[in-house]
Every structure is written in C-alpha cells, then in structure tokens.
C-alpha cells in the first residue's frame, strides 16, 4: 500500500463534505489487510460518523489482519470457493460472450471444460486464465480453434493450491496435521502433510512441528517417538525436497499410530503456572551442596539421603520447596501411563503369559442354546491403547501395508478380496478396512513374543468364518489351489506336459 495517512484523510474530508450535503460515499478498499494499523485507524472516525460506507476485501483472516476496533464496526461476509459446476458455467459464458471468445469458434468438449473447472480449485480467475491459455495454444483449423487433450494436459499439468506460508491457510493446514496425528488417523495426517509440501512449505518446518508433537502428544507413552521425529528432521536437513518426503511420511505415520499421552505437556504447563504465580522458594537445605565449613554449619546438605544406598534406589526425601511439598505434578500421570502400558484393560482381566499379556474379552452373556467358541489373536501391543480409548480395535489397510512393505500391493489384492467376500457372509462395520486373523489354537498363540499381546475372545459361533490357513497361504503366495482330487490330478498332468509353474 502506497497511500499514506494524509491521502486517506484527504479522501475522508471530501466524503465528510458530501455527507453534510446529504450524500454518502461508498469506499471499496481492496486488500485491506495491506494497510498498517495507523492507516486502518484513519478510517475509524469516519466509519463511526457515517461519512463513508466501508467495504474492505481481503484474502486473509480479518481477525488477524484488521484492527479490532474497525472490525467490530463491520459485518464480515465469508466468500467460499466456487463449485466445479459454477466454474464450468462461467467458462461456457466466456466462450460465448462477445468480450470473450465468441468470435473464435472454439471447439472444446464438455469433459475438457469440466477438467479446467476442477483444475481451478474454486478460483474463477484461475479458470479464466487457464481457458485463455488453452485457447491461445489450441490447434488452428478451418473450423476454428480446436482444443486437444494434449494441449489441455500441458496447461493443467500443475495445480496451484491455496496456500500462504505466512497466512491463515498455513496455520489451518498445520493444525489439521497436528490434530489428525493426535486422533491417530495416519491417512488424514499424510494427506495434510502432502498438502503442505505441495503448497511449497519448508519440510524443516513440518519436521520441527513433529518433534514438538512427539513430546506434547505422545510423550512417555512411547519415548521412541522423539527419536523418530528428530531423525526425520535430520534426514530432511541432509536430503531436502523432494527426497525427504518419505522420511516425513515415516515420522507422521509413526506418530499417528503411537500411543498418546499429554502428561508431559500438562506437567510443564502446571509447573510454569506455579513458577509464575508462586514465590521464588529457596532450595531446601537437604538439596544444597556444602563445599565449605560455613555452609555445613548452616546445615547445607543436612538430612540428604543418597538414593543409591537404598535397595529400592528410592528415598522419602522431599525435593520440592516447602510450599509445594507433597504436590503431585507429573509423577502420578507418568505412573498411570506406564501402568496402562502394563495393564490397560483393567476391567477385562489381564493376565501375563510370560512376556505376553493375555486379555480376556467376553461378549457379555450368551443367548439360550447359543454355542460360544474361544478365539485367539496376536496383535501389536500398541493396540492396547486403541482398546482403552475406543473400547475396540480395528484393522486399517495402512497397517497391513506397513507390515508387508514392498510386497504389500500383492498381499492387499488377496486381503481386499477376502474382506469383500467375508462381508457377504457377516456384517462388516463401515470403518473396518481389513480383517483381523484369529486362531482356535491356544498353544500356538500364547507363545511369548516381545512387543505383542494376545486377545482371547469368546464369540458366538455363527459370528465366525472358518477357513483353512494352509490354503490361504496358497492364495497369498500365488500357488495353484485345486478344488478337488480330480482337479489335482489334472493339474499335475498339465504340469508334466508343459514343465512349467510350481508343483504342489
């Protein structure tokens, strides 16, 4: 903005003169957020007196960019992005309007118009500019301007995403990323991360936010999360874009799937409050060093208890200032976090099976004559936190993909088929994307494996789909599975004749 306060006041003076003559002035200010505080204040008295009707347009959040006093005297209208159909209508009008391309006989299909409208991402200016570029580069023929798919693809090769690294959208997206991870939603978290990267965000900024998240929202529930986040920052620093996107993805997915605890965040906020609002308490005498005789005479270090001299490596010595003695700031919450890692299903009867926790989960009673079967399923111990939080655990495709790595696409084809066929036999919850495998063998499932838990389920038999796990291995490994003995013999003969394939 080049106009100074003097120029603004001159315009306002003319508006005031017009008001005295019974005329009101309509003043439209484009990009009002570019006016500084003093310039915006110059409008205020004339708005209050009614000398002007002020209309200010801004692409930023007015709560941040417009003075509170001026904003309070205005009514805010939020203009939302145009829909694809609206933009398509606008494009057709531009093609037929005399001020547009009416005289050029532009030959363009409805599908191509829809592509331009979708590419514009709700922005009419982008839609019209793209249309102009497409028409300019169209193939000239006797019939007119022919828009080809090749020309169109070149003009819409890269979408311009709404993103301002210093504006509201920047904070909206980082907030969406942070809250998606907090909600343990890796799919949404990855989406918002990619939105930021495609918008031109510095990957180091995202990595720094992940480091903060690792301690603020995961904390003592999984201390390894901080190491993963720091490693991702270092990888981004070493490699830069675009190679570092996979490292950020690694950290985002890990943090999303990690158990959550805000005990550290809550504790430090409570401590900061106590430090700010309380007195600067002296250090208790028992915690002070006494390198001189005078300090010893003043009882520095008196009653100090050396924890290593005790069997438990723990003493009852008070370490907080006298006014805060006995205050529980974090210890209880940390201990609760650690306890929940040991026995999160307190109401479901948790037992240890070596280094495996066996969780008994009952269905709440059976109907008359109903047959109940006991099933066993081994899962990652992180599922305990999902169980405690949601009352259930579900399987997502991303979990399977992370487990199988590079061969995941091959396995997911079979998993997706199984999920689809199983849903025809038993109802499937809408948010479940992949099956959870169970076994009827307690002997195999209850073998101790570090980092895992075994869920023992009592389920009505009519809610169970039985299948042969050996044959399922055939499916996963693309081995021919005969339907009967006759088919088996026929396949062996085919194998001998053609000397190809893998024999079973």
3D architecture notes:
The chain is an alpha/beta fold. The chain has 4 domains: 5-72, Rossmann fold (3-Layer(aba) Sandwich); 84-155, Helicase, Ruva Protein, domain 3, CATH 1.10.8; 168-263, Zinc Finger, Delta Prime, domain 3; 348-473, no CATH class. It contains 22 helices and 9 strands. The protein has helices spanning 5-20, 37-49, 62-65, 68-72, 84-96, 110-119, 124-136, 149-155, 168-182, 186-198, 203-218, 224-239, 245-257, 263-277, 293-297, 331-342, 383-390, 397-404, 408-425, 442-445, 469-476, 485-498; strands at 25-30, 52-57, 106-107, 139-141, 144-146, 350-353, 356-361, 372-380, 452-460. The chain has a 4-stranded mixed β-sheet, with no helix packed on it. A 3-stranded mixed β-sheet has the order 3-5-4, with no helix packed on it. The longest helix has 18 residues, at 408-425. It starts with a helix and ends in a 6-residue tail after the last helix.
Keywords:
3-stranded mixed β-sheet; flat; 4-stranded mixed β-sheet; 504 residues; alpha/beta; Helicase, Ruva Protein, domain 3; 10% strand; Zinc Finger, Delta Prime, domain 3; 4 domains
Concise account of the structure shown:
By secondary structure, the protein is of the alpha/beta class.
How many distinct helices? Answer: 22
Q: Give the low-confidence spans.
A: 331-368
Strand order of the largest sheet: 6-7-9-8
Helix content: 40-55%
| Radius of gyration, taken over Cα atoms and rounded to an integer in Å | 34 Å
Strand content: 5-15%
Mean pLDDT: 78
Structural class: alpha/beta
Task: Give a count of the beta strands, DSSP E runs of length 2 or more.
Answer: 9
Question: How many domains, in number, for the residues?
Answer: 4
Overall shape: flat
> Main β-sheet: number of strands, strand sense, barrel status?
4 strands, mixed
Terminal residue distance? 79 Å
């Amino acid at each position: 903005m080049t106009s100074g306060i003097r120029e603004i006041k001159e315009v306002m003076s003319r508006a005031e003169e017009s008001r005295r003559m019974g005329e009101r002035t309509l003043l439209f200010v484009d990009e009002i957020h570019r006016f500084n505080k003093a310039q915006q204040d110059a409008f205020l008295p004339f708005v209050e007196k009614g000398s002007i009707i002020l209309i200010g347009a801004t692409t930023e959040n007015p709560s941040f960019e417009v003075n509170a006093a001026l904003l309070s005297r205005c009514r805010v209208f939020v203009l939302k992005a145009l829909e694809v159909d609206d933009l398509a209508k606008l494009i057709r009008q531009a093609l037929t309007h005399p001020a547009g391309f009416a005289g050029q006989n532009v030959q363009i299909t409805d599908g191509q118009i829809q592509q331009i409208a979708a590419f514009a991402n709700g922005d009419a200016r982008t839609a019209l500019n793209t249309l102009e570029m497409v028409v300019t580069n169209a193939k000239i023929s006797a019939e007119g301007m022919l828009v080809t798919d090749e020309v169109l693809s070149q003009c819409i090769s890269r979408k311009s995403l709404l993103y301002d690294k210093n504006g509201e959208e920047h904070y909206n997206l980082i907030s969406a990323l942070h809250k998606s991870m907090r909600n343990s939603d890796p799919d949404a978290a990855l989406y918002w991360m990619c939105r930021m990267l495609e918008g031109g965000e510095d990957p180091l900024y995202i990595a720094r936010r992940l480091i903060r998240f690792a301690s603020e929202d995961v904390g003592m529930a999984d201390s390894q999360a901080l190491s993963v986040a720091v490693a991702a920052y270092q990888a981004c620093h070493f490699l830069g874009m675009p190679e570092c996107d996979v490292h950020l993805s690694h950290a985002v997915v890990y943090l999303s799937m990690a158990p959550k605890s805000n005990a550290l965040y809550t504790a430090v906020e409570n401590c900061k409050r106590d430090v700010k609002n309380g007195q600067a308490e002296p250090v208790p005498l028992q915690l002070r060093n006494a390198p001189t005789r005078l300090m010893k005479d003043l009882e520095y270090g008196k009653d100090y208890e050396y924890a290593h001299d005790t069997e438990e490596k723990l003493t009852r010595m008070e370490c907080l200032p006298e006014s805060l003695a006995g205050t529980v700031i974090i210890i209880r919450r940390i201990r609760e976090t650690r306890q929940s890692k040991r026995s999160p299903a307190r109401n479901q009867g948790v037992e240890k099976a070596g280094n495996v926790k066996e969780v008994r989960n009952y269905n709440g009673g059976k109907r008359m004559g109903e047959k109940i079967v006991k099933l066993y399923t081994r899962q990652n111990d992180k599922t305990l936190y999902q169980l405690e939080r949601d009352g259930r655990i579900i399987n997502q495709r991303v979990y399977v993909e992370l487990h199988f790595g590079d061969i995941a696409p091959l396995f997911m084809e079979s998993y997706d088929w199984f999920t689809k066929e199983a849903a025809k036999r038993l109802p499937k919850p809408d948010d479940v994307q992949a099956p959870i495998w169970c076994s009827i063998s307690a002997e195999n499932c209850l073998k101790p494996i570090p980092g895992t838990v075994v869920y023992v389920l009592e389920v009505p038999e009519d809610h169970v789909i039985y299948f042969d796990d050996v044959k399922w291995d055939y499916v996963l490994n693309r081995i021919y599975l005969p339907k009967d003995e006759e088919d088996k013999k026929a396949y062996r003969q085919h194998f001998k004749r053609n000397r190809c394939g893998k024999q079973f």
